[in-house]
Each structure stands twice: as C-alpha cells, then as structure tokens.
C-alpha cells in the first residue's frame, strides 16, 4: 500500500546530508521544518522515525515482525507534507463546523478537551480532517447516529485513524472501534499516542503486541503503526506525510 515514488527512506535519509542541508535552506520548506532538519542525526531519527529507536533492541529475527517501512517517504516528501500542514496566508487551516446537524454546533470558537462532537477542520484546499468522539463511557449518547452513520455513508472518506494509548495498549473500547471499521470495510490506521510516557522497553512490548494483533486479527488496517507524541512531536512528521499521501497531496 506504499505510495508510488516514496522509496527514499530513513536509511538513505541519514546518508544524504547534502539533501538535508539543501532542504533546510529551501524557500519552499517551512521555517519550523528547516530547523528540524538541522537537528543532530540521532535526534532527527528519533523525531521522524520513533519506532526505529526501539527496533534496534530487537533480535534480528524479530525485526521482520514490525512493518516500519511500508510507507517510507523521502525527506523531500516529508518537507512537502509539512508545507501542507503549515498555516500561511495562502494555506489557511480553519475550524469549519461541528457534526452533521446544526444543533451540534459548539459554542466555543474551537473545540477544547474531550471531543463530544464531530469537529471539521479544513486544511487549505487539500482536505478536511474530522475529529470524532471515541467510544466508551464518555461517548455522546447519539454516537451511533452521528459517527457510525458518517463513517458508513461518507463516500469521499480517505482513511480513518484510530488513536490507541500506547501506555495501556488496545482496550475493550478500541476493539469495538476496530470491529466497526472491519464491519464497514473501512481502510483504517492505528496511531499510538503518548509514546513519551513509556520507557523504550515498555513501548517496544506494546508495539509488538499491537503489531501482532494487526497482523493476525485485522484485514482493513494498514500494517504499519504510527507512534506519536504531542509533547515531543515525535512521529508527527511521518504521520503528516502519510495523510498527505493518502489524500493525493504527494502525487
């Protein structure tokens, strides 16, 4: 399922300092990402490819259990994707509306805290991101009518992203969401959150367990996991690149 043309991956990324230097100075590269590219090699690898930091603790015969390079973008493509997500005068990122019924519109100018509604964010002219409430005891009472109906009937939906807490792994409520995606034949991706809160050993254990689950229990899930941290920003650039790719913005 790798996007065509995205084969210059992590190994060659760090063997091409000239390319990185050129990108860091390019006018087409955002200032924030240009600073990222100037980080020391090990810090840059940890930020862009967090799973490769824990992969080295695996025995060689176990490394094939992880699917780390199915989506393997070049540094140029990571920079292009970063531009898609960078708000500028010509590329506005706006909170648009809430849910599919007017009585769900939030009072706040933008949503805060636990998501109770479907919130729509328009990313320039590229695509719209929909932030949905999760399953569980904090889910809104009209979850089925609101979320399941949207996922089942929205024809231009490119991908569904399920957020799984990497500290505790897949829980009962996560299984419900996964079963829903499988039942509706939705292509989906598992994003592992809060990776900054775990030791390398604990994170590796969780990653292996979740990867085994994906390999043996799912059909519609993209094989590669995307670990991220909203605190350190680790993994965010790779996830952005994947979103830009599946929405046709890296073609």
Q: Topology, please?
A:
Elements: H1 10-13, H2 17-25, H3 31-37, H4 41-48, H5 50-55, H6 75-84, E1 93-98, E2 119-123, E3 127-131, H7 143-153, E4 160-165, H8 172-183, E5 188-193, H9 200-217, E6 226-227, H10 236-246
Parallel strand pairs: 4-5, 5-6
Antiparallel strand pairs: 1-2, 2-3
Helix pairs in contact: 2-3, 6-10
Provide a compact summary of the structure.
With 251 residues, this protein is of the alpha/beta class. Helix content is 38%, strand content 12%.
Give an overview in words.
Keywords: GTP-binding, Magnesium, Metal-binding, Nucleotide-binding. This is GTP-binding protein 8. Belongs to the TRAFAC class TrmE-Era-EngA-EngB-Septin-like GTPase superfamily. EngB GTPase family. Helix content is 38%, strand content 12%. By secondary structure, the chain is of the alpha/beta class. Strand 2 (119-123) and strand 3 form a beta hairpin. The longest helix is centred in the last third of the chain and has 18 residues, at 200-217. It is globular and about 45 Å long. It starts with 9 loop residues before the first helix and ends in a 5-residue tail after the last helix. Residues 1-8 and 100-114 have low confidence and may be disordered.
Largest sheet: 3 strands, antiparallel
Low-confidence stretches: 1-8, 100-114
Determine the oligomeric state from the structure: single chain
Strand order of the largest sheet: 1-2-3
The number of strands is 6
Distance between the termini: 14 Å
- Our count of helices gives 10
Helix content: 25-40%
Mean pLDDT: 80
Could you state the order of secondary-structure elements as H and E?
HHHHHHEEEHEHEHEH
Structural class assignment: alpha/beta
Beta-strand proportion: 5-15%
Shape: globular
Radius of gyration: 19 Å
